Amino acid sequence: MSQTDTPNIQALSSEVSQLRQELQLRDQLVQQLSQELFRLVKGNTNFMPQRAEPDVDMSQLQALREQLQAVEQQVTFYQEQITTRDAEIYQLRQSVQELTDRSRMLEQVVQELPQIYRRKFEERMAPVREKVAILQRENRQLQAELQSVSYRLALKTRNASHSGIDLPNFPRPASSPSNISAV
After folding, report:
1. What's the pLDDT score for residue 66?
2. How far, in Å, CA of 54 to CA of 60, rounded?
3. What distances in angstroms separate CA 151 from CA 26, 139, 146, one per listed residue?
4. In angstroms, rounded to a whole number, what is the distance separating the alpha carbons of residues 169 and 93?
5. Would you state the pLDDT for residue 43?
6. In this predicted structure, what is the pLDDT of residue 53?
7. Is residue 49 a contact partner of residue 61, using CB atoms and an 8 Å limit?
8. Is 166 left (phi over 0), alpha (psi -120 to 50) or beta?
9. DSSP 3-state assignment of 123?
10. Rounded distance between C-alpha atoms, residue 25 and residue 11, angstroms
11. Which parts of the chain sit beneath pLDDT 70?
12. Burial environment of residue 12 by CB neighbours within 10 A (0 to 12, 13 to 18, 19 or more)
């Protein structure tokens, strides 16, 4: 996980918790408004129109309708806010999930790097080891051939000295005395 991902995740997490608190507060307000509306409409016995005063009833009815309309507007506004916040929360959760998945992938890559480097190194070393093995085999063969040639040369030299082959004697120059002894 990179250093920039951690603050982003923390910021998103705190924002999600703040949005949840706002959502709970709005849910409480909607609940209170619906209870108040229910109390106004159902619990009020004076709400029922009386036949004696039609003008007063009509004005009260108009006032109640206006109140009801205001409450409905507030409920609609809060529902829109809740819908917007829900969409934001969903997007934030998606972002958190994507970042979490990305950080897991990066952690896995970091954990696998040593094995990858070892494998690549082994792949590169395989031809070198093969070449070294070939060179060592050739070296052993050459050493064996050298020993064989040395042995045959030694045999020839020994046989040559016993077979009585005369080696040529080169005349020595008379002007300069030689310190080389004749064999």
Report:
1. 92
2. 10
3. 105, 18, 8
4. 107
5. 60
6. 61
7. yes
8. beta
9. helix
10. 21
11. 1-5, 43-54, 161-169, 173-183
12. middle
Distance CA 126, CA 128 (A): 5
pTM of the model: 0.36
- Residues of 63-92 as b/e, b for ≥16 C-beta within 10 angstroms? eeeeeeeeeeeeeeeeeeeeeeeeeeeeeb
Please name which of 52, 34, 51 lies closest in space to residue 43, comparing C-alpha atoms: 34
Dist. CA 68–CA 74, nearest whole Å = 10
Q: Which of 84, 82, 92, 85 is nearest to 10 (CA)?
A: 92
Distances from the Cα of 165 to the Cα of 8, 157, 159, 172, 180, angstroms? 99, 11, 10, 21, 22
Strand ranges, E, within the chain: none
pLDDT of the residue at 55: 72
